[in-house]
Design a protein that fits this description.
The protein starts with a helix and ends with a strand. It is 15% helix and 41% strand. The strands form two sheets. Strands 2, 3, 5, 6 and 7 form a five-stranded antiparallel sheet that branches. It is an alpha+beta fold. The protein has one domain: Immunoglobulin-like (Sandwich).
């Protein structure tokens, strides 16, 4: 009985170790920012929270020479979408015109050409284990 119990515990231990989450480091380079005034705010989303609620991961960084670089470590592999905007007036939110059009420049992963509000399908990408670089143009 002890032998069976020990074998069972060892097998469970191997299963738990095998289920450790694979992670990645994402380096995101954002370019074509019209000025160095304000900050760039970027969020990494899952399908469930894309542009609806708080992102899974977010950062705010200063802009230098029209560019910003952000690094996210230990992000579990999976399907994500990225959205970012140039918060030129530093009010911590995207500003909109009365007709609903954005006042501030924004960008998405995959750099889609948009003719309406961004969608999950426009921005989704597969994050694989290891290091991944993503470029976004505002």
């Amino acid at each position: 009985m002890k032998t069976v119990l020990i074998c069972l515990m060892l097998a469970l231990g191997k299963i738990i170790v095998a289920q450790e989450t694979e992670t990645s480091t994402i380096t995101i380079e954002v370019e074509n920012i019209t000025s160095d005034q304000g900050h760039l705010i970027l969020g990494i989303y899952t399908k469930d929270n894309f542009l609806k609620t708080k992102p899974e991961y977010s950062q705010q960084v200063k802009i230098k020479d029209g560019k910003a670089t952000l690094v996210f470590n230990d992000v579990p592999t999976g399907i994500y979408g990225i959205s970012c905007f140039h918060d030129a007036n530093d009010n911590q939110q995207m500003d909109f015109q009365p007709n609903g059009m954005p006042k501030e420049d924004y960008g998405l992963s995959n750099n889609p050409m948009l003719y309406g509000p961004p969608t999950w399908e426009d921005a989704k990408f597969k994050l694989e284990e290891g290091e991944q670089k993503i470029s976004i143009r505002l």
